[in-house]
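Record filed below.
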Amino acid sequence: MVRELNMDTQRQNFWKEAIKKEAYVRLAWHQKYRDNVSEDDQTQATEQQRTRSKRFQDMVPKPPTRSLTLPVLSYPKRRQPKLEVVAPTTEVVDPNLLLVEMRPVSPGIRKMLYHGFTKEGKGRYQYLQARTIKKPEEKYEFPLTTSWEYGWHLDDVVKDFWAPQFGRSRIVRDTFYRRNGILYEPITA
């Protein structure tokens, strides 16, 4: 059915009413003439469905039958070492210490937090500025978000690279000059 582009509120309400009216007419017809529909037609229809479904089941190939028991393997027995009984320790490990994501702040930077006000550029403001100087690798044990994984421990990789002496000259040499054609070294007369 083609979609009509000029569907305004009035037109939509017309369609709703038409659909409801059609459903009502179908229901009224069924209530009026349901006694005239013979039961033989209904039983014949269900019988046809049964034969049809049986035919389809016969068409589907059966899975091959095989035993579902696993073969029994015998391994040589190993000697079990005797476990020593260890007395429980009295030290109670705090479970929250194992869940620490951030390394502790150094005492010097923590003291900044308590000196001055943020409005003056001291206190919390100065503390946060000092904390941003450290890289996330130094502040955290592992990357907390997936976006941190892209630059995590990038300093180890960057140490191997350095800028060329004359800026873009390396790119020009690698991309413009060909090995079998123009020579890189200029001809001096």
In short: The two ends are 83 Å apart (CA to CA).
